[in-house]
Amino acid sequence: MSTRTAIKGYAKVLKYVAALLIGLTLSNLSGEIHAQSKGSANDSAKPVSAEVMESVYQQVKTPYKYGLVMVPASNDKKLDCPSIFRKAGKWYMVYIVFDGRGYETWLAVSKDLLHWESKGKLMAFSDSTDWDANQKAGYVALETIKWGGKYKWQPYQGKYWMSYFGGNSTGYEKGLLSISMAWTKKDPTVVHPWQRIGHPVLMSTDKDVRWWENHTQYKSTVIWDKARRTGHPFVMYYNANGDSLSKTRGAERIGMAVSDDMTHWQRYRRNPVLDHHQGITGDPVIQKIGHLYVMFYFGAFWKNKGGAFNRFACSYDLIHWTDWTGADLIQPSEAYDNMFAHKSFVLKYKGVVYHFYCAVNKAGQRGIAVATSKK
């Protein structure tokens, strides 16, 4: 064998070895990236640290109570559950009114978040035998959730959406209450009757009903998760009563449902995401602060805590939630909220946090109040 031939042979061997080593290196890198990706997914399910929870509390707390901003026209009407959005330089509030018969859904407008004017009804009682004839309690769905963001009501398929709970029994949250959807193709800032899909999407009598929601269902909030962390774009959080033979003794908890089209919903997981085992854990509303999701909710009649009050929980993935264990965000303290101070809608605008809530006094008068982070 000539020297030239030997050199060519060695060169081929070196190329083969180099290719083999490069292949092994790329394979190892791929494995490491995959492992890191899996690790990130696991990290998203981890509890939120006490330090981060404290930081959130400091960002969202509103120690200054401004007072009532929406007052009922008469004592036989009770205002509740504000959800607020912004369009064309004005703020709008979707809220519900109980008048003895049941809930109807209304709209109000404001220029400054402090002075509000009622505009009229979006969903009214039906003079019919509809399943929701006497109860239509609606909430804005698919609003942008960025903390300090635009608070825009996003349309889907050319429609604006509300989730609502409905029922045909009269009285304060009486009878079987179920969750459904309403929509409009018109401007949501203009008062007009909304369309309803005509049937519940979740009921406590469904075959796949979970143990914690087998009595009745209440408020829901729907967000548009374009990252599809659950595998679906639309995520609903809702509170429901269940788990006891007595409908007056079962606890209320917050659970999840998901959808691909806003009209067909399926329950997500067996257990609730927030559960205090006694009393009420309810009325969830979601905001996103950086990469962290914050669920504002209210508690009432807990084992070691009486009354009604507003609190929060945090999550990295929308599924696993860490509950705040510190001070309440809102609790009774004033003449207008000395019975209950509960049911949040919290937003940040121009550096000021506004915490809207339902205020109930000991006379049973119920209106909508706000507290702020600055005087």
UniProtKB/TrEMBL annotation:
Please indicate which superkingdom the organism of origin belongs to: Bacteria
SUPFAM superfamilies registered for this protein in UniProt: Arabinanase/levansucrase/invertase
- What is the protein named? Glycosylase
Q: Which organism is it from?
A: Arachidicoccus ginsenosidivorans
